[in-house]
C-alpha cells in the first residue's frame, strides 16, 4: 500500500504493511500471475462466444459468468456525498466530486453514489442531472487513459497541454463537453431559475414549486442512473454506477441535526436501493485523487485475520490549494504525514471513542498518493469560523454522556481518555490563554512582576519548557516537510484560534446548554473573489470584514504592543523599573512578533484585505481602556 497506518500496531498487520509478510516477492509473483491468468480466461471467453446459430452458446455464456464470479469477490460500496448550500458550495464543484467517485476503478454493478442535498436546491439537482449525462463520456475517457485525478475540474486545471495527438483529440472533445455542461449550469444559476425546456427533461423537477424552501420541503429522492436499467451504459457500452439525488424532508421548528441527520437519511434511502455493506463518506469539496482508494481501504476490511476487528478506515484531510508556507495552517502535517490522530471533525471523535470502547479498531491510513483533495479555507475569517464549528461540537461531546472520562471509564486506558480530551477541551483552553495575554501586559504597565528574574534559578523551568516545546514542534514540522515559515504561521494561527474561535465556541456551547440559544451550523464558503485568491496565493493574510473576532485579535495585539513599548521605555529611562519584568517584556515581544500581519493590516495596508477602520477604532479604544484596569 505504501502508506502509514494508525490504529493498529505495526507487528499486528500482516496485510496492512507489506514488511510484515514473509515471502513478499514470491507472493507478488503468485498474485500477478493468477491475475494475468484470470484476465486471460475472461478475454478468451469474451472473444470466443459462439454465434447465435451455433450450439452451446448459452452454456459458454454461463461458463463466462461463473468465471467472472470466481474472479470478482469485491463487496458493494455506497458512496455518500453531502452538500448543504448551492451558494457556499457551487453545484459545479459538487458534481466534480461526484464524477470523481463515479469513476473509481471498481465494478460499476457494485458502486452506488448518493448526493445528499441539504439545501434542497433545484440547481443542485439540475447539476447532478447534467453530470449523469456527462458521466457517459467522462468515465470511459478516464479508464481508457488512466486519468488522475478523476475530478474533471481538477484534471483539466492541471493538464492544459497534451503532446500525444491521439490522446489530445479525445481530450479536447471531452473538455468541450465539460465546459459546455459547466456553462449551462452556471447560466441557470445566474438567471435564478430553471427554464421550462430544462424542466421538461426530467420528471424530478416537478418536486420544486413556489412553496419549496431550503428549510421547508418534502422528501425528494430521484434515481438518475439505475444500474439495473440495461440502457444505463456509457459510450463504450459498459455499465454505469447507480446515481441517486436525495433531499431529506425538512420542516420549520423541527430539528434536523445537520450533517448527522443527513447521513441517517442517506443510510435509510440507500438501504432500499443498494444496501451495500461498505459506505464511503466524502464532503462535496473533497474529490477523489486516487482511483484505487476504495480497493486500498478494502484491504483492511477483507484481511482474514483482523478484518473483522476493523470498524472504519480514516483518510487524512488534504487540500489541493495549500500555499508553500500554509498561511492559515490548514494542513497540520505534523499531526497527520506521523499518523497520530485525525480528530478535528466531531463525528470522527465520537465515532472513534464509541468504537474503541466496544473493542473495535479504527484505521488511520495515509497512503503515498493522497486519496482525497479538498478546498482549504483561503481567508482568515473562513478559517476561524470553521474551527469554531469544530471546537463547539467537540466541547459539546465533553459535556455529554460521551465524555471520555465517563463513557470510556474502565473501557479504554486513562491515556486514551486524556488523548480524546486534548481535543474536546479546546474551548475552555481559550480562557487560560486570554489570561496569559492580558494580565501580564497590564501588570507590565503597572510595574508588577509575575515571573522570576532571569538571574534566578526559578527562571530555568520557564525557559526550558518554552524552549523544549518549540524545539520539539519545529523538529516535527521540519520532519514532516514543512518550512520554518509554515511552522511560524501555524503558531500564529493557533494563537488566533484560541483567542477567538475557541472562545466563541465556549460561549455558544454554554448558552446552548442553558437553553439560551439554539444550534446553528455555519457552512464555510468554498469560493472567493479573484483579488482575495491572489492575496492568498501571495501569502498575505486576509481580514477585510468587520468581524468581532478581528476586533479581539486587534485589541490583544495593541494591548501587548503598548505593554512592550512601555517596558522598553522603562528599561531605557530606568523609570519605575522593578525586578522580574524582563520575562514579561519578552512575552509581550513574542506576541508582538506573532501579530506583525495584524499591525500591517491595521496601519500599513490599503487593499481590500486590510482591517476596516471601524475595527481599528474599536480596538484602540478597548486596548486603551484595558491599560487603565487596576491590578490588585
UniProtKB/TrEMBL annotation:
Pfam families: Cellulose_synt. This is Cellulose synthase-like protein E6. UDP-alpha-D-glucose binds at residues 89, 118. GO terms for biological process: cell wall organization; cellulose biosynthetic process. Thought to be a Golgi-localized beta-glycan synthase that polymerize the backbones of noncellulosic polysaccharides (hemicelluloses) of plant cell wall. Keywords: Cell wall biogenesis/degradation, Glycosyltransferase, Golgi apparatus, Membrane, Transferase, Transmembrane, Transmembrane helix. It is found in: Golgi apparatus membrane. GO terms for molecular function: cellulose synthase (UDP-forming) activity. Mn(2+) binds at residues 259, 283. The chain crosses the membrane at residues 25-44, 420-438, 548-569, 581-599. PANTHER family: X-BOX TRANSCRIPTION FACTOR-RELATED. The keyword Acyltransferase does not apply. Coiled coil: none annotated. It comes from the Eukaryota.
